[in-house]
Structure formats: C-alpha cells, structure tokens
UniProtKB/TrEMBL annotation:
The keyword Iron-sulfur does not apply. This is NISCH protein. Residues 241-347 form the Nischarin C-terminal PH domain. The gene is Nisch_1. GO terms for biological process: Golgi organization; lysosome localization; regulation of protein localization. GO terms for cellular component: endosome membrane. Coiled coil: none annotated.
Length: 348
C-alpha cells in the first residue's frame, strides 16, 4: 500500500482551483506529490496507524455553525474518517466560533510555522449525505450541529467521484445490522404516509448511512419561487429552469495601489425569459433532525434579476476553466418603454 495508480490519482487531484486564494500552509500541501503526500497524511493527519488514504479533493466548505463563512479546504477521505484541512485564516473569520475551534496554538501566529486546522468527521459518526441540485454540492451530516459540513464542489464530476469513493469506503465498515422492523397496524402505517409532503429520494447504504437525492418537487418549488420574483405575469406551467449552477459574482474594486476583485458566491438560475442571481443557504436545508427552529434566512434570496430581452451582449474571457462571463444589459430604467412616449424629450 498504496498502489501506484492510487498515488498517481491522488497526485493529479491535488491541485488548488486557480481562482481561489489559500494560505501558505495549504499551498505547501498542494505542492506534495505521490509518496510524499501519503507520508504527510500518515505523519500529520491520520489518527489511526492502519488507515488508508483513498481520495483527495479540493473544495470550498461551509459549516453549520458558521453558514456565511465559505473557506477553502483540502478534503481527505480515508478508511476511517473524512478530514477537512482548513485554511488557517478561518479561525479568525468569525468571533462567534471561539467555542467551535480550539485556539491553544494561537501563539504560533507570528513565527515561520504555518498552522492549519484539521476538522475530523469519523465515518462511524456519519448519518446522512444530502446531494444538492444537479450535483453542484453535497452536505455531510453527523450526530450534532458541530458535525454538519457542506462541500461546494461547483462541479458534478467531483461530487459524483467523492460520493462513489465514500460509498466504497463505507462498505468496509463493520456495523451491527439494523434491528428487525416492528410490524405496524394498518392505521399507523396509513397515517405516517399521509403527510401531504413528498420525501426526497433516499438510498440507505449497507452501513446505514442515508444518501438523499433531490426529487422533482425541489425544481418545482424553485420554479414557483422564481416566478414570484418576476415582475411580468408569468404562466407558471410554461416556466422552465434551463440552468442551475453555483458560480461566483466578481466585484471589482479600483484601488490606488492595484485593482482587486472579490468573488461572491451566487446561485445562477436561467429561465427562458430571465437571468437570476440568488444568495442560497447551502447548509441549513433540509433541516437536521435536532434543529429546534427554522433557519434565520430563507433558502433562496434574490440578489439580482434581469430580462433576457434586455441582454445586449455577452463577453467571454479566453482563460481556461473557470470561465469568466460578463453579461451586459441595456440600462433601461423603466421596463415598459411605451410609458415614456408621452414625455416631451425635446423640452427644457
């Protein structure tokens, strides 16, 4: 252990997305290749001597207790746990998480020693995995609020690969079988089904971990929400969501020293008539079983919406993935141009 094929695969996957900035400590990890990477895992991260590294992925992650702080992480899947090697700037990103992270190593800040937090989720503590719409992200749920993490892969291939590897590793776990179901009478069986709400598709793995996939109703709910946000009277049955993708909105700042830009995570939704940007809550929904109250914000909050008929041109950058698109819209204050024809445009 490990095989040459596995080492080559992990080396190929060990690449930070070019558009995201990470700390020096994670840049060091991204520079490791082959056997050096495996040795780094065993000497610095692995908690058990005989566990095997099976998969590596770079992804943005969100934690349930800090739903607004997206941080870059190196996600390592072994035969015992999922490790999230986090950017060290995350500890100081939110003052409310002092109880969430152990700060006893904060005296290393000013030295040349670069510190990374490692969040560990044992496979034995794993309860469910929720896959997001169109495999753009997935949420891993453990037994408490501290053990809920969303990986924003923004890539269906990376999501699919990780889920396949996770299922393979979970198959190695020796868990006690579930107790035999108790025979229910007709009335309780009928009553439990009559909730008026369609459940998502669930796949219960042999390790008793649930893999939950969205159903058609989620797209229907999203289409209804989008129709509500549209000013024009829309025939809901004819409203089709053509594209749902997790993207970044580029905010450009013109500074004195150098022009800088920040990336704001957005959900882009394209319909046959409009283009929308939403702020989406990727971690609070569906509600975990222990949640006492609904989240403070809605799952989708409209950030911007424009009509396709007002789109003037689309500018495309020539760089490799990720591709930058600039949508240029006609700057029309009033969408109904007929109203302005009665005005005297040639007067004082």
């Amino acid at each position: 252990y490990p095989s040459e094929f596995l080492m080559q695969k992990i080396t190929e996957d060990n690449q930070i997305p070019v558009h995201l900035h990470v700390s020096v400590s994670l840049q060091y990890v991204a520079g490791l290749k082959g056997r050096a990477l495996v040795e780094f895992f065993h000497s610095n991260i692995a908690e058990v001597e005989n566990e095997e590294l099976r998969h590596l992925m770079w992804s943005s992650v969100l934690f349930y207790k800090t739903p607004t702080v997206e941080v870059m992480a190196c996600v390592l899947l072994s035969t015992k746990a999922i490790y999230f090697l986090l950017d060290d700037s995350f500890i100081h990103a939110d003052e409310h998480q002092s109880d969430f992270w152990n700060k006893e190593n904060s005296d290393c800040e000013n030295s040349s020693f670069h510190l990374s937090c490692c969040f560990v989720l044992k496979l034995n503590d794993l309860q469910s995995v929720n896959v997001g719409l169109f495999d753009q992200y997935f949420r891993i749920t453990g037994h408490s609020a501290d053990h809920i993490v969303t990986c924003l892969t923004r890539d269906s291939y990376n999501t699919h690969t990780f889920i396949q590897q996770l299922m393979a590793v979970l198959s190695l776990l020796a868990r006690t079988p579930s107790p035999e179901p108790v025979d229910k009478d007709f009335y309780s069986e009928f009553g439990s089904k009559n909730t008026g709400k369609m459940e998502n598709y669930e796949l219960i793995h042999s390790s008793r971990v649930k893999f939950i996939y969205p159903n058609e109703e989620e797209i229907g709910d999203l289409a209804f929400l989008v129709a509500e946000k549209m000013d024009s009277l829309t025939n809901l049955p004819s409203l089709n969501i053509l594209l749902y993708v997790l993207a970044f909105q580029v905010n450009h700042f013109e500074g004195s020293a150098q022009n800088t830009s920040s990336l704001q995570p957005k959900t882009l939704i394209l319909t046959s008539s409009d283009l929308f940007l939403f702020d989406e809550d990727y971690i609070s929904y569906p509600l975990p079983e222990f949640a006492k109250e609904p989240p403070k914000r809605d799952k989708y909050q409209l950030a911007d919406g424009r009509r396709i008929r007002d789109l003037d041109r689309v500018l495309m950058g020539y760089q490799t993935y990720p591709q930058a698109l600039t949508f240029v819209f006609d700057d029309v204050q009033n969408q109904d141009l007929m109203q302005n024809l009665t005005l005297d445009h040639f007067g004082e």
